[in-house]
Amino acid sequence: MANYGRLGPAGALRYCRSVSIDFEEEPSTQETEQREQALLQKLGFYDERIEAKMRSDTEFHRIVGAQTKTNGTERKMTRESFLMAARQLWGLDHVQAAAAFASADLTGEDTLNKREYLLLREAFHHRDARPCPELDRMRGAALWHKYDKRGPKGLTREDYRDFVADLCAGDTHVDHVMRVLEQHRESKGRPRLIPDAMCGEQGLSEEDFLSDLLDQDLLGPRGLEKRDLLMGFSGDSPQRRRRHRWRASDARAEADGGQANRPGLRVALEAYDQVAVTRATEAQVASTSENCEGVSRKAVTRPVHPEAVNADLELAAPLACEFDWRGPGAAQRDSELFDVAMGCVDRAGAMARSCLNAPEDELDRTWLCDPPDAALSLLLDASDPSVLARRVVELAQACKRIAAAQPPLVRARLPCKIFGDTHGQLRDVLLLFASFGAPTHKNAGDVELCSYVFNGDFIDRGEHQVALVALLFALKALYPQRIYLVRGNHEFRSTSERMGPTSFRAACSRAFPPADAHEVYEACFGVFEWLPLAALVADRILVVHGGVGDGSWRLEDLAAGVPRPLSDLRVAPAWVVQALWSDPSDSDADMRRGVHMSPRGGISVEFGPDVTDRFCEGNGIDLVVRSHQYVRRGYKYMHAGRLVTLFSARNYFGREENDAALLLVARDGYGQIRVRPKRLPAYVAGAHPSLGAPSTSQRRRRSRSGSPKRRRSRSSSPYTSDDEADVATTAGALDAAFAETPPPPPPKAHFCPSPKVHSSLGL
């Protein structure tokens, strides 16, 4: 029987936060401001700690800079922006961040001003904060907000029990109980407990452990019952039953994409739905859609229709979605920026499907190269170079605001896809999207569920550098909390401008008139100077472009010790150069251990497997994913599996037969964070893009049948530096190394003469 019923209220699922302030009881805004200033004066922020205040104000402006502009009023930080920033800057989960925000919102306006943000940082982030009763009260208020699961109704007995349980699980209490237990065991002559550092010695045996469990004098008098632990084997542990946990493990579990019943999560109903559009339904959707994103795409987004809502429905407050799922700073749906960015991503999807369904494969350097801006024109739906330049600059400005609001070390959630060097090879990136899932919320994309990390070197050498950068900027503008662009060594002018006719500047000159080319070039490097230098995936995997160098630096240095905007490596700490330029040894043998001079020379070093292992152990991570060098299969496991080299541009230089790859990092059903390579085979003339890469025997048969044979330069190792042409060589020597392979045709100059090839490449 049909259940159509009457129409429900329009906009019933839209969240509307009501803020009520009792001005008779609460102090006025002016009184609150005076109280805040007096507290800051007491803490020394107007005297000896003025520099700390300036750093906090700068951080505040970077975060609110990604928000929508206000009309001449004082800029304030919204709760949404703070929740995202607290996760990126300090690693807080949403429960911690929301509680801290509520305790610092002294005016009750659901926003933070600069003074409130400074006090919040002092109370929760600054480790050496001065003793202050007001800050202690703020910390206590945060705990109250954290355990109050019913809103402002106060704590129940169960809430207070959660508070006590967390106290008992704290390090202070656990260490105290451990000391008492060890003293008791020692008095009974039991074997001592060895620390982890002495893992080579024999630890506590099963029999001795059972003796401890059965010793009622050891556990019972101290309120320790083994049945509390054994209940976990029946799936009914106290930890599972508890509704809230505010511990570091929760932040890690959230980043890892844990179970749906994870503490601190709630169910929320989205106020918009998506409609799939086919040729048969396009006209119907066009005639009925209001406020939709456009019917020319394969899916449209619009508010939930009243027919999908029960009559007289009033949504329960806990089920309302508070924020846009794309995060703060995302392009607003009714803005020109959104239309440009979404159109770019939609057309990229169509181009990706076209590449995948092509009857024959094709090299990126021969695809859509005449005129030089053909791919960019398709992406941005314009043919006038000035219009194209204006749209690229608009995307760059949006990305600059977002990148400035995020820290030098960003955090990405699981599942996550990681890409290596792309070097302007747009077609390879589109094929990876079409083959393994694309970063869009339409057309069967997976960006609503998956994070994307692009690990630097987007520019130089490839034929579609500007088009690829425009696509990455469009993705970042649309999905700032899902797309992360990590900086590589080629995103520095000192490296890029030495590429001569294959540099990013030359690519801009071929695509735009001189004035527009300069504006696009400066706008793009304005973004690069703010990009993060690394990404931390699920708190366990570090994604960095070059490597760990000598391993002497820590993640804390990366998070707080990078001056930005960073335009010149000479003003950066030495470890920043190592993170961008260092390489791992291509052998796990003992003789390759330690730190050595790199074949690149100069600023780069080569580090061995022991350095990688020591760096991972010291920073509490399991894996380093780096790029910076191309490898035969697109990825290569190294250093006892602690390090992976990843490269996402196939047939590099147009001469190699290397694959392109990405890594999918996701939680599996066995409690593991699984790293799974996805590979795009190298180009083979006449082959379909979906065919596998040729085997060694197939390559030999092709060679015997008359295919030109390439002589390997420098080394017979298939593990070759992507910047070998940049370091300790000349353009003439590079041409001689590939003398038997016909060189690629020189790029066509569009608005400027071809730059003169320099004699020395690289730093």
Verbal overview:
Helix content is 38%, strand content 10%. By secondary structure, it is α/β, with parallel strands linked by helices. The strands form 6 sheets. A 6-stranded mixed β-sheet has the order 5-9-10-14-17-16. The longest helix has 21 residues, at 336-356. The radius of gyration is 29 Å and the shape is globular.
Helix content: 25-40%
Report the average pLDDT across residues: 77
Note the beta-strand portion.
Answer: 5-15%
Overall spatial form? globular
Report the span from N to C terminus.
75 Å
Which stretches of 5+ consecutive residues score pLDDT under 50?
16-27, 236-263, 284-297, 700-763
Order of strands across the main sheet: 5-9-10-14-17-16
Walk me through the topology.
Blueprint: H1 29-42, H2 50-64, E1 77-78, H3 79-90, H4 94-104, E2 111-112, H5 114-124, H6 133-147, H7 157-169, H8 171-187, H9 206-214, H10 216-219, H11 226-230, H12 238-241, H13 248-255, E3 272-276, H14 282-288, E4 299-303, H15 336-356, H16 374-380, H17 385-405, E5 409-412, E6 416-419, H18 426-436, E7 451-455, H19 465-478, E8 483-486, H20 493-496, H21 504-511, H22 514-528, E9 534-537, E10 541-544, H23 555-560, H24 574-581, E11 583-584, E12 595-597, E13 605-607, H25 609-619, E14 623-626, E15 629-630, E16 635-638, E17 643-646, E18 660-667, E19 673-680, H26 696-704, E20 720-721, H27 731-737
Helix pairs in contact: 2-5, 2-17, 3-4, 4-5, 4-6, 5-6, 15-18, 15-19, 16-19, 17-19, 17-22, 21-22
